[in-house]
Amino acid sequence: MKDGPVIANIAALLGDPARANMLTALMDGRALTVSELAGVAGVTLQTASGHLAKLSAANLTLMEKQGRHRYFRLSGPDVAEVLEGLMGLAQRTGAVRVRTGPKDQALRTARICYDHLAGERGVEMLDAARRLHLVAEDADIALTDKGRDFFTGLGLDIDRLEKGKRPLCRACLDWSERRNHLGGALGAALLESFIARGWARRFEGRVISFTPSGAQAFRSAFSIE
Amino acid sequence: MKDGPVIANIAALLGDPARANMLTALMDGRALTVSELAGVAGVTLQTASGHLAKLSAANLTLMEKQGRHRYFRLSGPDVAEVLEGLMGLAQRTGAVRVRTGPKDQALRTARICYDHLAGERGVEMLDAARRLHLVAEDADIALTDKGRDFFTGLGLDIDRLEKGKRPLCRACLDWSERRNHLGGALGAALLESFIARGWARRFEGRVISFTPSGAQAFRSAFSIE
DNA sequence: TTCATGCTTCGGTTAACGTCGAACTATGAA
DNA sequence: TTCATAGTTCGACGTTAACCGAAGCATGAA
């Protein structure tokens, strides 16, 4: 008996290596062009174009034009969440690449998940936010008064973040840590702040690289030992 | 550049309607036979047998024999979590069945997610547990002393649950509510208890049906208005 | 031992899909 | 206006995979 949403169609779209690679590349929240995505997926322009047409038709990606460039991005953080979930499942069931490189460890240490920090650092941050009572968890994760002061002290405009449509805080399940990290508008703003402060920078693909002093500052800020 | 776990293979397995239907049928945590799953998927025995062979080879399902019967179950709660995630994404992107029936609302109200309560009731329960300080959230969800007394009062053997391998409490993202419900050994034990008490019973498929008095008792127990 | 049931395996058929070369369209630069 | 670049569309080709009828294997009942 079939009920509920139709998942086979979505899963089938993710089930092609070229499309999966393109979506994974978009997990860093940036918008990429057809040419760039063709390169990431290792297929020709025509093949990439056809795949992106399918992904957009299924509302998994959004396309915007700038002159003759077509930019594609994920249509929402839930796409990244599903990809994270699949990565966790692939990890547990043994669907992993034979040769793991330094990139794999780097991805586990810190990476971007759509627009917020994921990986060990991401999970550490949410842990610390709870321990320091910066957030409380009712319906989902909510900011405490102490947290509001704390993040304002870090230079974030919490009022502006709250005015947006998306939730301020969201728990996001991390494939590599199997625990939650902090998503939502706050999660995104924090990563933006870390980059602006020079604590971290974007590295290859989805890797976020912390400088030694940046890692130290991050740990100090959140009282992480 | 390809890195991290290989998700296309897993996604491709979920991307066939017959296999997706079989996995969805197994989300209720029960074990089903090849014949039953063939019926659920609307394919012949041979086709179902082949699909199950693939799913088991990929470690998505586990098979155990009893005489000439082969029983299949999901290999872990993370498979159900990924399916829940895909259902949420399918819902948002419009990959839904044209005709929604009463079953759809029933699924939203209360259903089983692998072995614990999901849906509005499931989310309500976790909300209430937080509000009543029955759980605290550090690394993940942890039981408070008050919570330990509360659930022991409900007849649960918390010590035994903690001795098991799986985490006592786990947040599990609910596709229909877009918020977390309570998974883990405690989540499973609670649903088992509700059924044992007669508050709820299994209905068709994954639907969990609360009796009127059971729903009232559930609300009273968790101080839900 | 024979028969019934549950299930697997094999081989053939069909449809679907990804791929790319070639041609074309849209946009921007010279 | 012409040329270059980004991207789309079309058609052909090859591969893959789902499906099922038929045959066979494993298990249990009579």
UniProtKB/TrEMBL annotation, chains A, B:
What domain of life is recorded for the organism? Bacteria
Originating species: Phyllobacterium phragmitis
Q: GO biological process annotations for this chain's record?
A: response to cadmium ion; response to lead ion
Q: Which InterPro entries match?
A: ArsR-like_HTH, HTH_ArsR_DNA-bd_dom, HTH_Metal-responsive_Reg, WH-like_DNA-bd_sf, WH_DNA-bd_sf
Which SMART domains does the record cross-reference, listed alphabetically? HTH_ARSR (SM00418)
A GO molecular-function descriptor = DNA binding
Q: Which residues form a coiled coil?
A: none
Where does the HTH arsR-type domain lie?
A: 1-94
- Signal peptide positions (record): none
| Protein's recorded name | Transcriptional regulator
